[in-house]
Amino acid sequence: MSQPLDPKGAGASSTGGTSKSEAETGLERIRNLFGGGGDGGGGGARGGPDPEDEEDDGMLRMSFLEHLEELRTRIIRIIIGVGVALGISLTFTLQLWHIVVQPAKAALIANGYQPTLAQHSPMEAFNIIWFKLPLVCSLFIASPWVLYQVWAFISPGLYKREKRFAVPFVMGTAGLFILGGLFGYFVAFRYGLTFLLGIGVGNDVVTYISITEYFDMFVNVILGVGAVFELPVLIFFLILLRIVTPRFLVRHSRYAILIIFIIAAVVTPTPDIFNMTLFALPMLVLYYMGVFVGYLFILRREGRSFPWEIVLKITALLLLVAAGVMYLGITYHWFKLVPHWPFFAR
């Protein structure tokens, strides 16, 4: 017979790691999702259950075939949503292409080259501009719908109080994905491309870029950075499922930092340390943002509150100091705000 769990419930362990009850609760969520919940000691094993959890004793249980049917339905709806977004993208294809090609033109001009791309075959421009580009754009446009379908698929295995995260999950995940794409477009890709094209300047190198090579590199960076920006969502769900705790993530953050720099070295289009750091710093911020959001969730689950008043006062003070520094720089040291990184220069 299985031993009963800790009567205190599945909270964070005092040592900062993940207790046995936490791990079993997280695994139970996963079993519930794939039809393995049942009554085999799932609800009765936890001492002092949440009242809302008791209301959900009859939560939806599905067999394996029912899950497959539900998965098929969600996939069909995702395809329909992406198809609608694809139709919208095709309507504005030429305008989208002018936006996509802008970093190439800026990088070529910055290095003294003609701001044009090369076409190697008759079908190359058609395949890129009228097929691949609308498809990629449709992924960004349809991302909220796709993520909603993903949430709708996993929600039957969650408790009522966990289903409240539907709207934050969809908006946060889609927003971070789009924000990552914008960061890749306006910062990471532009600097990486300018650096790469500048290597051949003055070395008897004639530079021209094919449409296919440019677009493939563009998509790899934009989608890669967009996916990396989902790190807070991943961390939050690991905490939600009680697989890890915020204290555990902070204690082992040195390993996370190492993994983040390895990912940055893979995603960045250039081998230099500057661009790799440019990728890694936002990822570090996102990592600790995810830990902080998970910590807020733990406090709410335990009935405690976060000292927002003190934090807001400190934040306001820091903003005032930063504003004062900017004022002094603009007034006495000839600094000015510019529409590109670092946004504050002479």
Tally of structural domains = 3
Q: What's the shape?
A: globular
Uncertain stretches of 5 or more adjacent residues: 1-20, 33-49, 52-58
Helical amount: 55-70%
Radius of gyration, CA atoms, in whole angstroms: 25 Å
Mean pLDDT comes to: 78
Helix and strand string, N-terminal first? HHHHHHHHHHHHHHEE
Q: How far apart are the first and last residues' alpha carbons, in Å?
A: 73 Å
| Strand content range | under 5%
Number of strands: 2
Query: Which oligomerization state do the chains in this entry correspond to?
Result: single chain
Query: Please, how many helices?
Result: 14
Task: Describe this protein's structure.
With 346 residues, the protein is mostly helical. It folds into three domains: 1-61, no CATH class; 64-306, no CATH class; 307-346, no CATH class. The chain contains 14 helices and two strands, in the order ααααααααααααααββ. Strands 1-2 form a two-stranded antiparallel sheet. Strand 1 (336-337) and strand 2 (344-345) form a beta hairpin. Helix 3 (64-91) crosses helix 5 (124-141), helix 3 packs antiparallel against helix 6 (143-154) and helix 5 runs parallel beside helix 9 (211-228). It is globular. It starts with 19 loop residues before the first helix and ends with a strand.
